[in-house]
Amino acid sequence: MGMRKFTRKRVPSTFRMWCRAQLLVLLTTVTIGYSQDYGPDENTLKVGRSIDIFTRYGYLSLSIKVVPRNDTTWIFREPTIDIFNGIDPFAVYPTRMNRKQIFDGDFHMEFCDNLKQLLQAYFRHFMFERLDKPWLAFTGSWASETIARNLGINSSFIHKDHCYVLVRLSRFRTNAELTRVPNNVNLVDVVAREIDNIKVGDVASVIMFIRKYGSHYIHSYTTGNSIYQVFVYRKPVYKRIKERLSNRSVKKLESMDLRNFFSPWYADHMGEIKVASGNTSVERWASAKLRVNYYIFSYPSLLKLHGDNKLLLGLNNILRNEAILELDMRTLAPAFKDPQKRRWFEEVLDNYLKLWESNL
């Protein structure tokens, strides 16, 4: 999804100053009043339902399971609400399973020159329309110790002098997406009435709408589980490995390269093998099955799965539907039929998103 650049020619400087002055006050009311119109199915992961990302911006990992947590009984508990009527015919549920495959998922590695790129890589498949740095919606509140714990590495390696390689194996279980939102889509009555109350030039009326009915809707999602490991390198070693490996797919990598480059002889630090859902049974399986023994040394390596069909088949069966792997959120602009009101909604939303990105 391409990120659209928003033109601010129509936004006076006084408006931007007012936004900065009132941001915390207004969004406090957003947090307090957000759930007033929700029913018992409010925590429903369903395409077309809306979310106010300001409510927990920077803290979304508390309500959307994307990193290991102690409890594994939920994968999504962010309040959502129906905005559109009759949207179900435009929802599709692709079947991704190929029964001839040993592992139904994705095995990849990403080279990250710094910590920012590492966080960006981890949240590569999480997108929020009009947000330039979507990973901040999850990680903006993370301290160094939290980053280290979630990524499975020692906190002493969370600084600019190190480079990283993220290796991840994702097992897909379910996914859904909207093919489109028609221009003539019907709105839930209370939503339509609230939009009628919005006045172009009135920031507070847009904030009131977001407080009640959200800022973005779920366009698509994929659930399942993943297993991952972070390898930490000094820059000179990292550059050599990157030059050697980055232009080849994981499938085409030589086993000798994997054994050498992803071992204690090259890596400054080898992170723990982590499970996105925090499932302790999978963690124990990984601890037992994914250890490399070299004379008197032993170390964990996710790369042991490379080319081992027996291990891949075993992992394919135990990675259940316990985490969110991909999420694409689009703004509620399609709910606005009046072009002027739509532009005003996008204008206000865009400015607040930029303020949150720069200030958190």
Topology:
Blueprint: H1 13-33, E1 49-51, E2 81-82, E3 84-85, E4 91-92, E5 105-112, H2 115-122, E6 126-128, H3 136-139, H4 144-151, E7 162-178, E8 186-187, H5 189-197, H6 203-213, E9 216-234, H7 235-245, H8 255-261, E10 269-270, E11 274-275, H9 280-289, E12 291-294, E13 297-300, H10 309-318, E14 323-331, H11 339-359
Helix pairs in contact: 1-6
Structural features, described:
There is one protein chain. The protein is α+β, with helices and mostly antiparallel strands and 360 residues long. The chain has eleven helices and 14 strands. The chain has helices at 13-33, 115-122, 136-139, 144-151, 189-197, 203-213, 235-245, 255-261, 280-289, 309-318, 339-359, and strands spanning 49-51, 81-82, 84-85, 91-92, 105-112, 126-128, 162-178, 186-187, 216-234, 269-270, 274-275, 291-294, 297-300, 323-331. The strands form three sheets. Strands 1, 2, 4, 5, 6, 7, 9, 10, 11 and 14 form a ten-stranded mixed sheet that branches. Helix 1 packs parallel to helix 6. It is elongated. The two termini are 24 Å apart. Mean pLDDT is 85; it is low at 1-40.
